[in-house]
Amino acid sequence: MKVRVRFAPSPTGGLHLGGVRTVLFNYLFARAHGGDFILRIEDTDQGRFVPGAEQYIMDCLTWCGLEPDESPVKGGPHMPYRQSERKAMYQQYAQQLVAAGYAYYAFDTPEEIETMRTAHRKDEHSHAQYDGNTRMHMKNSLTLPEATVQQLLADKTPYVVRIKVPANTTVTLNDMIRGEVSFDSSLVDDKVLLKADGMPTYHLAVVVDDYLMQITHAFRGEEWLPSAPVHVLLWEYLGWKDQMPQWAHLPLILKPDGNGKLSKRDGDRLGFPVFAMNWTDPKTNEVTAGFREIGFMPEAFVNMLAMLGWNDGTGQEVFSLKELTEKFAIERIHKGGAKFDYEKAKWFNHQHIQRTDDQTLARLARPFMEAKGITADEALLVKVAGLIKDRCTLLPDFYTQGHFFFATPEVTEMAAITEKWNAQKQAFFEGWSAALATQANADAAALEASFNEHVQQHGLKKGDVMLPLRIMLVGGKYGPGVFAIAELIGITETINRITAVLRSI
Ligand code: GLU
């Protein structure tokens, strides 16, 4: 049987780390087994629908390089891939469940449900559920005479369909990560399957679609584990138990400084992104920072995510997406939550920058240069990228570490020159730049040789004039080899920068 997995997000907002990791594990599993990876949009909860979220999710997948084989945009053999467009398909299954006695019509108003929740609660702190203990006190097709039910339906009285969770049963599921997980059915409530507007809830839609789309393995966040018994019961009640996918509930991603689940608020509080890309909330217009905009490389981001809950057992940490596809094995996903460490995330990015060829780095760095007003010559940008990449952790570092190759820098460390300035140094720089003016462009080694020669002629030590030269060319006390810089900016620009500083001294 061909492996088929799905990522099934609800378009209710941006995709955070945990969401993308779910995508990744689905993708890796599909690729590792020559299977299909499906993107299905679970948009049946119209109240939580956020415009733009679906496009954002698809753009994230594209940025990460995790393209689905079937999706609402790409299509596929099980179209449509948006649940709102499949509305009509779910009704018959809800009816089938009611007819078989596994589900029932419930006519209660929200107020009646609220009254029940307070009246039947066991203590001050918790409210009662609509379940085996309370359902017989409610207005539904289990308590009302058949004729009344038919009348209410004929009168188009709003109703929902609820699953009838059996009493005192143990519902068991074999999770690929956790092994056997058992649930006491008495603690599970009679979840709504079909809403008053005829839309299914997530619980019905996820089971029907996983069945119809022939999903073989379902990866999702651990937060869905409490819903799993409802899904297992539905697979059984619909008569599909032997086609039920194998489940894998992925461990939570934890905050760096505690044990709870990582949230957007932790990102705001500790100053790191939690979304893959910038997410602009259409309601508030508030932007939450994303890894892409901060300057992460997609491969580094994906590598970092893979290591949140998985390893290959050899201690290797840096992987390309291709290597991950080859090495990914579900047996090595941990059960426990994985702590997110932003410093480590940056380390991954630094590592990937070092492994990336200069041409690609130039392409990735260009938008960050342009955002700062630098339109870089392609050939020069490629050379600069190679020269400074070991100093770069995030892509904007190519600007901070390399802007002076493309534009005359502002000299911010003038004091470091003037403090120890003297006539001898003045004469040296005047003499050397005059000598340079008679010569054509030269490489770093030739420039250094001519510099050394003049140092000797002026009775100086090289160390006396190296820092001033760096500050003249770079503006500050940083950057790669100073003669490599002079070579790349060229003789004329080198002379101009020296002259400008001499003038201001
Ligand atoms: N629609 C659910 C979500 O938003 C999908 C959970 C699942 O994969 O079953 O995460």
Throw out a few tags for this protein.
505 residues, mainly alpha, Glutamyl-tRNA Synthetase, domain 3, Glutamyl-tRNA Synthetase, domain 2, Arc Repressor Mutant, subunit A, 3 domains, three-stranded antiparallel beta sheet, 21 helices, 13 strands, 43% helix, elongated, binds glutamic acid
Just give the CATH class of the largest domain. Mainly Alpha
The gross shape turns out to be elongated
Strand order of the largest sheet: 3-4-7
Outline the low-pLDDT stretches: none
Mean pLDDT: 96
Count of helical stretches: 21
Small molecules in complex: glutamic acid
Examine the secondary-structure arrangement and name the CATH architecture of the largest domain.
Orthogonal Bundle
- What is the CA-CA span between the terminal residues? 78 Å
Structural class: mainly alpha
Count up the domains. Answer: 3
Number of strands: 13
CATH fold label of the largest domain: Arc Repressor Mutant, subunit A
Strand content: 5-15%
Report on the biggest sheet: 3 strands, antiparallel
Share in helix: 40-55%
Gyration radius over CA: 32 Å
